[in-house]
Design goal:
single chain; alpha/beta; Rossmann fold; five-stranded mixed β-sheet; four-stranded parallel β-sheet; about 20% strand
Length: about 240
């Protein structure tokens, strides 16, 4: 089935908000698609700023590609999912300019620490779990059945029990029907394991976070410092399970 994606622009302006941005240095400009048209306006008013472009889902590569040219970032959009992700992957200050709430705020070290701890906790439970549920979405653009099957095969080879759970829209209450599952691995939208973390009956970790830690170990680097979001989440996530232990 062919799908037509139509970009929708917000009509909310940012008059008066830029004056509240307090930052010394060169800023990278990032936005969600609803506010992408505002970046040229911001660029004109913030001298020396660099337009990075759009963030989409868990993909913050447009922020990463300008990382060496900027001292911090200005995120134009709502919510803190994207800006915290940018701060976590770059280690730089991120200021959030929200045209909907008409507010300006900063991503705090605590925001980043909370997210890192959730990811680390999920990963630790994954390593210790013997029965693992792998969540697979049937939605176009999110379906990673090949990666899920590959992970299941590797886990089974290591003597663990792994099961694939397919869904369109995840009903968290249904997860309660599988009390034997000790840890969930999410292969669908990255935000499920972050923003809906508390809705899971057991710990959850994103498959991309598992892959990131494996590749960091292979390179001898601390996980979480270098971005490995060059991994295309529509492709198979390849890693060797024995590197996890």
């Amino acid at each position: 089935m062919k799908t037509l994606f139509i970009e929708a622009r917000s009509k909310q302006g940012i008059d008066g908000l830029l004056e509240k941005v307090d930052f010394e240095g060169r800023m990278g400009l990032i936005a969600t698609v609803q506010h992408l048209h505002l970046l040229p306006i911001v660029h004109k008013k913030l001298k020396g700023s660099v337009i990075g472009g759009q963030v989409l889902g868990c993909d913050v590569s447009n922020a990463l590609k300008i990382g060496k040219r900027v001292d911090g970032y200005l995120f134009v959009g709502s919510g803190n999912f994207h800006p915290v992700q940018i701060a976590m992957k770059t280690g730089k200050m991120v200021i959030m300019l929200d045209p909907i709430a008409q507010s300006v705020s900063e991503v705090t070290p605590l925001d980043v620490e909370i997210r890192k701890k959730r990811i680390t906790a999920g990963y630790a439970h994954f390593l210790n779990a013997n029965r693992i549920g792998i969540l697979v979405s049937s939605k176009p653009g999110q379906n990673m059945i090949k990666a899920a099957e590959q992970l299941k095969k590797k886990l089974n080879k290591e003597g663990k029990k792994a099961y694939i759970f397919a869904f369109d829209t995840l009903d968290f209450s249904q997860l309660e029907n599988f009390p034997d599952i000790e840890c969930w691995v999410n292969t669908a939208c990255y935000r499920i394991a972050i923003e809906d973390y508390g809705k899971f009956p057991r710990s959850v970790v994103n498959i991309s976070d598992i892959a990131e830690r494996v590749e960091c170990r292979q390179k001898g680097e601390p996980a979480g410092i270098h971005s490995l979001f060059a991994i295309n989440l529509q492709q198979d996530v390849n890693f060797s399970l024995h590197m996890l232990t």
